[in-house]
Each structure stands twice: as structure tokens, then as C-alpha cells.
Design brief:
By secondary structure, the protein is mostly helical. Helices cover 95% and strands 0% of the residues. The radius of gyration is 17 Å and the shape is rod-shaped. The relative contact order is 0.09.
Length: 38
């Protein structure tokens, strides 16, 4: 049971990391677009 629990926790952390990364990428893309237009 312990071996099953650890990957699950890692999965949750990985999911949070992916969400954060997506936000950063989106913010960077928006900034780049704003700079290009300006």
C-alpha cells in the first residue's frame, strides 16, 4: 500500500507543477505579444 501511495503524491505534485508552468508560459507569451505590438 505504501508503494501505491508515493506515486500518487508525486502525481499530484507533478500536476500542480504543470499548472504553474502553463500559467508562466501563457504569461510569457502574452508579454511577448504585447512587446511586439508596442
Amino acid at each position: 500500500m505504501l508503494e501505491f501511495r508515493i506515486p500518487y503524491q508525486s502525481d499530484v505534485l507533478f500536476h500542480c507543477y504543470l499548472c504553474l508552468l502553463a500559467v508562466v508560459v501563457e504569461y510569457s507569451t502574452n508579454s511577448s505579444l504585447n512587446v511586439s505590438r508596442g
